[in-house]
Amino acid sequence: MSKGFNSSFSSQLSSSTANQTDLTSQTASQNIALPASSAASAGPSTWQPPPHWNLDKSVSPYRTKIAARLNSRLPEEQEIIPQTAARVASRIAADHAAVLKADVDSPFSDYPDVVRRLLPYHVFQQPQDDLVNITHDKKGKGKAIDCDIKTDIAETKFAIECYRRKESLKKRFRNLGVQHGKRGSPDNQGYVLAQAVLEADRLDMTWLSNELRTARGELDKIEKDKRAVANVSRAATIQNAYAQYYRSYPYSYAQPYGATAPLPSGTISTFSIAPSVQTPVAAANTPYQAGAAIPVQLPVASLPALHALGIVPVPAANLPSDGQPPPAVLRGSSANGTMLSLEINVSLLQSAQMSGLAMVLNSLMSRSGVTANYASAAAPSSSSKTNSTHAGSLVP
């Protein structure tokens, strides 16, 4: 029995050993590289899957199932699907609004009111991704884009912009501090000093403007006086130029001024004048002769004006016996000493003296005209009073 068992066991062991030897030889033949001649004769060494295994990756079984499921639906079902999704999204949006703007002041009225006001809070128990996917309609390529990523990107950009602005402000304030430290005095003192300097400059400019305005006024006045003097001198020059072309005719009843008796030396003759208005008028009947003296009656108050013009009257007794006579000769005065009788030689005067003398005579004439008008207006009233008095004396 033992011999039979041993023989059978030996046969089985030999058969298994032979099988293992065959498998080892096959594995070695696959792993060990064969020579070029044997490899070329045996064909390619890469392993290829059998053709009945259907490993085509271009067609996905998952997509095939989805397409088959969509095609199996009815048109009514395909219309109901987006409507249902829209209603669910609207209800979730309403729940969000009710939660964000809850009525916390008024108490609950009944059980339906409790349900209506507390039911929207179930949104906090739903995952955020589910709510976003329901409320946001994603189609096509939008499914591959996450809204959270977009929000994070926008917030990151905003944070970066805020950081950049903060850094720029810090840099500006740092520069201000550096500039403040480089100055020789504090900024507040500098501002006060600058304001004081500007105020002083403003006052100086105001004073200079006033001075300039005053100087311009004086200049205009001087220019006006010069124009008036130039006009008077021009008129006198034209009159002298035309006078030499006219012949003077002697009058029958005119007495030459030189025929009067000479005055005693050292004395000034006096003459009486009427109490009427005095007018400084030259001899009207005496014809003008170039180089001849013109008699003029002037008040004593006009002597300072003549002295300012350089015309100094010389008494007739003090005239030099020979040589050029003076421009003005004093011939006499009135009884009360208010009027002077002068002889002025126009040919010996300069243009400025002639214009000044003309202005003095014009001013005296204007004042004499005003006084004469007042006297003529007062004369009729005085005569009427005299007549009434005389008539009253005649009445018995």
UniProtKB/TrEMBL annotation:
Region annotation Disordered: where it falls in the sequence: 1-58, 376-396
Residue ranges with Polar residues bias: 17-32
Domain of life: Eukaryota
GLTSCR protein conserved domain residues: 95-208
Sequence ranges of Low complexity compositional bias: 7-16, 35-45
Pfam family, one: GLTSCR1
InterPro entries: GSCR1_dom
Protein name stated in the entry: GLTSCR protein conserved domain-containing protein
Species for this entry: Amanita muscaria (strain Koide BX008)
